[in-house]
């Protein structure tokens, strides 16, 4: 059975590393793709690769190798096989999804406001905050992880049972209740604003911009729904494990961890299915093509982005920030 799980994890890890690397390259190598939301997607891809390397790989190598015990076993658990670094990446991934939702919320509901616009400085601070908070939250778990000979696996050894309960409930709140609550509230407002609210938009430019915002919002909503479906089982098992209802080893734990790795692997596929721009650039990378269009001035680039919103007739255009105003474009 565990050989089958090892093969499954290996496939997920391969898809994860290839897909997320392509996402990073697609944005980094194409100036037109360097928008705030795409930089957040780069951060999400980086976090997802860490999840694959430090949560997925232990499930591949552990069944085939003998884990050392004693001091060396404890160190190995803390640095690799215990998944500590992977959970930092997983939490950074969750926080990044919240950051993406906040960016979308500002772009959709307050497109002309400068207060909520993500500048380069704000974006840097936001990404740094995601990783800092994730690392700080992981410190107690890092200190508690040790190799437990009785179960022949890494686990948490707390000096007092109350600490285990606090940490377990904390994980459920920090990685589950709070993010899901924020995401649900923000996307509910956006869905109402984009799909349910009646408006009197008549200009073709504004209609095209609204179609664009709908499609980008739909893409990140799909990513968020997948996150919720994949994370809830893990958080539930983690909570029940520390309350003594079930053990944190066995098939159920392996399946829940596989869902976390699956969640970190599927995002590039979602981008490709939902975004024509991502699909084009990812295809170009796979086929070893490069965009050889000469760099344009900022004004020319903005004008091109505005025209593309009109010409693509519903195709997603990720080449510029969605909050840019296109009212000045004349439709002939």
Brief account:
InterPro entries: GPCR_Rhodpsn, GPCR_Rhodpsn_7TM. 72% of the residues lie in helices and 2% in strands. It is mostly helical and 332 residues long.
Strand content: under 5%
Q: End-to-end span in angstroms? A: 64 Å
Give the overall form: globular
Tell me how many strands there are.
Answer: 2
- Let me know the largest β-sheet: 2 strands, antiparallel
Oligomer: single chain
Whole-number total of structural domains: 1
**In the CATH hierarchy, what is the architecture at level 2?**
Up-down Bundle
Strand order of the largest sheet: 1-2
CATH top level label = Mainly Alpha
Radius of gyration: 22 Å
How would you describe this structure to a colleague?
It is found in: Membrane. Its main location: membrane. Keywords: G-protein coupled receptor, Membrane, Receptor, Transducer, Transmembrane, Transmembrane helix. Residues 297-317 are annotated as: Disordered. Residues 19-271 form the G-protein coupled receptors family 1 profile domain. The protein is mainly alpha-helical and 332 residues long. It has one domain: Rhopdopsin 7-helix transmembrane proteins, CATH 1.20.1070.10. Helices cover 72% and strands 2% of the residues. The chain contains ten helices and two strands. The protein has a two-stranded antiparallel ribbon. A hairpin with a 4-residue loop joins strand 1 and strand 2 (153-156). Helix 4 packs antiparallel against helix 5. The longest helix has 39 residues, at 204-242. The radius of gyration is 22 Å and the shape is globular. It starts with a helix and ends in a 21-residue tail after the last helix. 36% of the residues are buried.
